Amino acid sequence: MKILICISKTPDTTAKIAFTDNNTKFAADGVQWIINPYDEWYSLVRAIELKEADPSVVLHLVNVGGADSEPIIRKALALGGDEAIRVNADQSDSYFTAAQIAQIAKEGSYDLIFTGKETIDYNGSSIGGMIAEILDIPFVSHAVKFDLASSQTTIVREIDGGEETVQVNLPLVVSCQKGMAEQRIPNMKGIMGARTKPLKVVEPIATEALTSVVAFDLPPAKAGVKLVSADNPEELVRLLSEEAKAI
Amino acid sequence: MSVLVFIDIADGQIKKASFEAACYGAQTAALLATKAEAIVLGTCEADLSVLGQYGISKVHTVSDAKLNHFDSQVFTKIIADAAAGADVIVFSNNTTGKAIAPRLSARLKAGLVTGAVALPEVSAGFVVKKSVFSGKAFANIGINSAKKIIALNPNAFNITKTDGIAEVAALNSEIPAAAVTVLSVNKVTGEIPLSEADIVVSGGRGLKGPENWGLVTDLAKLLGAATACSRPVADIHWRPHHEHVGQTGLAIAPNLYIAIGISGAIQHLAGVNRSKTIVVINKDPEAPFFKAADYGIVGDAFEVVPKIIDAVKKLKGMS
Ligand SMILES: Cc1cc2nc3c(=O)[nH]c(=O)nc-3n(C[C@H](O)[C@H](O)[C@H](O)COP(=O)(O)OP(=O)(O)OC[C@H]3O[C@@H](n4cnc5c(N)ncnc54)[C@H](O)[C@@H]3O)c2cc1C
Ligand SMILES: Nc1ncnc2c1ncn2[C@@H]1O[C@H](COP(=O)(O)O)[C@@H](O)[C@H]1O
Questions:
Q1: Residue B58: band (very low, low, confident or very high) from pLDDT cuts 50, 70, 90
Q2: Shortest CA distance from B191: residue in chain A
Q3: Percent of chain B at pLDDT exceeding 90
Q4: What structural domains does chain B harbor?
Q5: ipTM of the complex
Q6: For A2-217, which CATH superfamily applies?
Q7: CB-CB: which of A19, A158, A164 is closest to B182?
Q8: What is the CA(B112)–ligand 2 centre distance, in A?
Q9: CA distance B51 to B220
Q10: Number of other residues whose CB lies within 10 A of the CB of residue B277
Q11: Residues of chain A whose pLDDT is less than 50?
Q12: The whole model's pTM is what?
């Protein structure tokens, strides 16, 4: 049983969002980089749990990114996982990234591929479905629960307004979100061990980019809050009805 | 040459987000001087010719109960065949759209923009504005491929209606075997789905405990609103997980968001900052949420909210 876990690098959730180069690039100066929370808290931890239940499970991490991704890859290895592969390319277009991961998946013949629900920077929710299509295997998105018995998986996925329990055979791609597992913190043993785990760097395959960023914009600033006295909530209701036309 | 809109249905009815996608598709088609068609998979009780009122000229249906649960692989194959003549394919960026649009993008080598918030710019190239950094910014993305796919954020585009009746025609399509078997469905009934709600009333740790949630649910019921909560509230099981909004929960964009006893941490704001009007009720005047709010009351929720409920009742002529 081999699992490939996709790990992406995102700015910390409290990072200031600003742009440079005529609003074409994210201003990365001084930004703290983290493992995308959906990858770290849910997909990676669930994969580690599967290995804890069955030590024959092999966990490989994959990241498409430059050398500056290595700290977050090491951190992911400190949480768990046997080895990592970095595809040495700037992550630009989703299809480009997905094609790289699909290539790694083909070469390593994995039974299961985990991604996060989305990256918290570009909010694409795209990579998992694209990998599955390139490999022509099933894709279950928004998984909140994942169980495995021999080669059959039972997954609870979120749908609009509820949940669905589904059954699918391996191999498949699953995108993970809250509910899959509980966040963990790497311990000293993990951190020491991660230093010597293999981190292989491979070059990307030639792939066309289907999209490109033209420019970023920031939303217009709010006009400022209109405060209403706590003694007069009727005034708030009047404003919501007459001024905001919201109720 | 046309625009194809995927119409997502649930329990035999067209979802609100799909009406938005239909209007978006029709207006995109107008920009490209072409027509908009739609595709509906699964059995649908609703009269599909009403999609004409949203600008759709023709609706292709594959009315088979096997398609009432979605399998991203099966849906992608059918839509890919139906989209042979389409330049632009439009989805709603909901759970169904997010599972299918990326597959279709890879299959057709069609550039994809998810989370779109405005019509494409077609004067030079084809550029779509999307929400990024959890609503804290927008990116204008150029699609370079011949075929293009857009997944529209729910509540980001106004529904406009005109006269019109769409032609409805069954599509002769082979249905591939599904790899995904649905064992059970657990839907929250009688509640307004959070992602589609016009008004959302949300509570945070300031409400002290689940026993006090009547304040939130009573106000929500009165306003026809959905209910939501901050992450710690879901983590400590005061409220179900599906109500958790924010960076790591659901991102929503209702017309009105009322936050009660929520501090307004940056990760919470990330899920709600696209709301049109934000109201904050918090006893701490320094709570960061006031900076992101349109209206606010500094006060104790336990005193203020019942008075708001009374005032809304009065407004609605209920007392
Ligand atoms: C990576 C990461 C991701 C996260 N993702 C999310 C997310 O998706 N969603 C999310 O919500 N949080 C998220 N968080 C947590 C976030 O940082 C905050 O901790 C959380 O939003 C706080 O919830 P709260 O406002 O309910 O509670 P608190 O911060 O405890 O605030 C309670 C508020 O209630 C007010 N209050 C108290 N009593 C009353 C009263 N009687 N009447 C009126 N007001 C009262 C207080 O003044 C205070 O402002 C995330 C954090 C991290 C690090
Ligand atoms: N550059 C990357 N390298 C590895 N995995 C990635 C990369 N970008 C995205 N992913 C994976 O795909 C998921 C969804 O990303 P996205 O489609 O970009 O929102 C993430 O949670 C990751 O698991």
A1: very high
A2: A161
A3: 92
A4: 2-170 (3.40.50.620), 194-315 (3.40.50.1220)
A5: 0.95
A6: HUPs (3.40.50.620)
A7: A164
A8: 15
A9: 30
A10: 20
A11: none
A12: 0.95
